[in-house]
Write a structure and sequence with these properties.
This protein is an alpha/beta fold. Helix content is 25%, strand content 33%. It is built from seven helices and 17 strands. Helix 2 packs parallel to helix 3 and helix 5 packs parallel to helix 6. The longest helix is centred in the last third of the chain and has 14 residues.
Length: 295
Amino acid sequence: MDKLPTFSILESPRWSDYELLDSGDGLKLERFGSYTFIRPEVQAMWRRSAPEKDWDSADAVFQPTNEESGGHWLLKRKIPERWEMKYDSIRFWAMTTPGRHLGVFPETASHWDFMAASIRQAGRPIKVLNLFGYTGLASLIAAAAGAQVTHVDASRKSVTWARDNQTLSGLNDKPIRWLVDDALKFVQRESRRGAQYDGVLLDPPKFGRGPKGEVWEVYKSLPPLLGLCRDILCDKPLFLIMTVYAVKASALHLGQALEDVMSKNKGSVESGELVMREKSAGRLLSQAVYARWSG
């Protein structure tokens, strides 16, 4: 390999409906819309900066039951089953879930902005594949920018949530194909069919199961999936964006894997960390590692 990927720390500063209010002592205090939540954050190894009253006034606290994502929410005040949030022109539903998540990963907004700009500047029809698409926010951003989108997730509940977000955003007329499927099997079929995409996003979990019990283990499953993603990219693709959570792999490793996969394409790879900046003390809290190829 002649060169290393460019290392970058990406912030997502354009949120109005989300704030990282404070962090520390293994926890983070966040605002999602009008409500505040306390969630575990093992990387917050410093002391809290915000006054204790800010923490005490949180609407809900997540109580984990193990080292993974399981647990339950302790509601300190009544909050609705779901509430509306927005990012730019996209509107979506947030809600508490048993897996500590609330329907959005705010730190990925930097990728959304990059993707939307790439689509608008392309000057041609664009097809985007969103793998492990969760509640569909990236798919809606891409569609609003003018792309034809294929959204794949193994969870029927997540895909239903994504379609509700499409309706809430007023984007039911946009060409989005919503699929409940195993990501690896779907891309294998698309490769055999000779399908072509201009851009691919993937946010793979550390471990997961497909709708028919297919096992996903990121270290074993990601390399073949990356190769298949390259196979279904068109001759002049715009981007291949990968975000990974809760793994020991570094951004350097992800970037080098993407450099290897895209070595025959003219373009550049950057890798690094997706971070959010505290309102309280201005510290950066890393939430995920990523690698991004752009043509």
